[in-house]
Design brief:
Number of helices: 20
Order of helices and strands: HHHHHHHHEHEHEHHEHHEHEEHHHHH
Helix content: 40-55%
Radius of gyration: 29 Å
Number of strands: 7
Structural class: alpha/beta
InterPro entries: Alpha/beta-hydrolase_catalytic, Alpha/beta-hydrolase_N_dom
Keywords: Membrane, Transmembrane, Transmembrane helix
Distance between the termini: 77 Å
Largest sheet: 7 strands, parallel
Length: 570
């Protein structure tokens, strides 16, 4: 049997193929370090585009990583486009002239320097919009080095995968035809890479995160004490043991405004608020955990209060203190709040692995509460309210089928920072009224559901009645949790093409592939900005709950005072 081959210079040699492993080691090293000119142009152009602004300010280290990733994407696209062009031109690859490399060297350096400078200007403008003064000059200067290292690492990984494919195809060629070997080789390598990334790497990362955060869940934050009141889970007569509440649960029931603090704000008689919580260790599954929480809620007299708030937590079981404190101040403590934990992991990891758990927690807890609430006499029921932030809003939505269900089964709802994949959020936003922007959409004239990025500035549509149950979404224009979506890879979203929000730079534009990675990089740092920006919601809850609850005896001056209190407690 004959085998076709090539010389060490890549030229055909009769019917004999010379294995690359037989080539001199120095030549194989040059091949490994070889860069194509089209790929280099793609890498430089995409590296320059990585400096364009996204939603949040970026430090030098993060900018370097984004630059390296986008440069690697650009290199791959440049190589692909060159391959397609040669296929249409029906010619083999030709080595570029030395002049072409000189033009690339000078042009690439100039382009990179210009965009590097523009990038620093854009970052300064974003920091100014958010009132951020921190700036690390050393890391900014080192960002090109970080980018080069990241680019080289990704290029090496890509070429390693390519080398594995070539080895697999060559091995298979001994038993099956060359074309079949190429196809099967790609399938095998693609399957192996997917298995390693999704199985070994992702599973290992999730396991390590679970171990770390589950260990923290057994501890108690410094300064948090077990409640001495029967109105809190973990306190006297509670059916939920203190040790089962977890890190976030113990914070939730162990903190909050005292009756003295509530009295100073309300200037009148107040009640001690009820806080009920079920931790992961409190019961085996979410349905049992929800039933246990409702049992504790009944024991504490939660269904006898004027207001009852069902909160779906974030991934780690966290309940934003501003969310609950605002309700307790505005109601004079005449409120009970109930929540359960469904994960150890923070929300940005829970997005990947715990979405089903968030659904179960939101649905099971509300259904358990509603089952008891609906059987009470109508004149003896508390106002049933729903709330959730981030992944908590995602879980909170799952208890409802749509606008009418929210209207009919709740007295009011506040969802903050809804992830872009929220089913109802997407339904309301995608079917918004003509002419309303995506950053602040209007759904069916705002008859039930409304959106705002600044409740103090007003909630559109201002000229339409808002009767009955009020459902309010809080969403900052600069919140990457709200706007991140895989669709960013190939499709421009409306919120970028429209007029920018109050804390988004006007120079931000959509760029295929690049914008997706920029917003992705914003996600882990979405709360590392001042309150009122990114994914950090704080005093907005005061105005939001005031709109939903409509307290008759609270003035604008009272709300300003309460925002000062809530802001200090954050």
């Amino acid at each position: 049997m004959q085998a076709s081959g090539r010389s060490a210079r890549g030229e055909p040699v009769g019917n004999v193929e010379v294995d690359e492993s037989d080539a001199p080691r120095s030549q194989r090293r040059r091949s490994a370090l070889h860069l194509t000119l089209p790929g280099c142009w793609g890498a430089v152009l995409f590296a320059c585009l990585s400096f364009t602004p996204s939603l949040l300010p970026r430090g030098g280290l993060l900018q370097g990583m984004i630059c390296g990733i986008t440069a690697a994407i650009g290199y791959g696209l440049g190589v692909l486009l060159a391959f397609v062009w040669r296929a249409f031109a029906d010619r083999p690859p030709r080595p570029p002239k030395a002049t072409s490399w000189w033009i690339f060297g000078v042009g690439g350096v100039v382009l990179f320097a210009v965009f590097f400078g523009l990038g620093q200007y854009w970052q300064h403008e974003i920091r100014s919009l958010m009132g951020i003064s921190d700036y690390n000059l050393v890391l900014t200067i080192l960002s090109p080095v970080v980018a080069a290292v990241m680019f080289a690492l990704l290029l090496a990984i890509g070429r390693g995968i390519r080398g594995l494919y070539r080895w697999a195809a060559k091995t298979l060629d001994r038993w099956i035809g060359q074309r079949a070997a190429n196809v099967v080789g790609w399938v095998l390598v693609a399957g192996l890479v997917y298995a390693v990334v999704s199985g070994v790497l992702l599973a290992g990362f999730i396991e390590a995160a679970n171990t770390a955060f589950s260990a923290r869940d057994t501890r108690t934050e410094e300064g948090v004490q077990q409640p001495t009141t029967a109105l809190r889970s973990g306190g006297p007569d509670s059916v939920v043991p203190w040790d089962s509440l977890g890190w976030q649960g113990r914070i939730f029931v162990g903190q909050g405004p005292s009756t003295e603090q509530l009295g100073r704000f309300a200037e009148g008689p107040v009640l001690e608020p009820i806080r009920i919580y079920g931790g992961l260790a409190s019961s085996e599954d979410t349905e049992e955990r929800a039933a246990l929480a409702v049992e504790d809620l009944t024991r504490a007299g939660g269904f006898e209060r004027e207001n009852l708030v069902v909160v779906t937590t974030t991934g780690s079981g966290w309940v934003d203190p501003a969310l609950v404190d605002s309700v307790e101040y505005l109601t004079g403590g005449d409120v009970a709040t109930v929540a359960i934990q469904y994960s150890y992991l923070p929300s940005w990891i829970s997005y990947l692995v715990d979405q089903s758990k968030a659904r179960e927690a939101g649905r099971d807890l509300f259904d358990a509460v509603y089952d008891v609430w609906s059987k009470l006499p109508q004149d003896a029921r508390p106002r049933l309210l729903v709330a959730g932030e981030s992944l908590g809003s995602f879980g909170g939505e799952t208890a409802f089928s749509g606008e009418y269900d929210l209207r009919n089964r709740t007295a009011g709802t506040v969802f903050a920072g809804p992830p872009n994949f929220n089913v109802l959020f997407r339904e309301f936003s995608d079917h918004r009224d003509d002419g309303s922007p995506e950053i602040e959409p209007v759904f069916r004239d705002g008859r039930t559901v409304r959106f705002t990025n600044d409740p103090q500035a007003g909630i559109p549509p201002a000229d339409s009645p808002w009767e009955g149950s009020r459902v309010l979404y809080l969403m900052h224009p600069s919140d990457p949790i709200v706007w991140w979506s895989p669709r960013l890879i190939t499709r421009e979203p409306d919120w970028i093409g429209e007029a920018p929000g109050r804390d988004v730079l006007e120079d931000m534009v959509w760029i295929p592939f690049v914008t997706f990675w920029q917003i992705t990089a914003d996600l882990p740092f979405s709360t590392g900005v001042p309150a009122g920006h990114g994914h950090k919601y704080s005093t907005e809850y005061v105005d939001a709950w005031a709109v939903v609850l409509q307290p008759s005896d609270v003035t604008t001056e009272d709300l300003d005072s309460l925002k000062s209190i809530v802001g200090e407690e954050e």
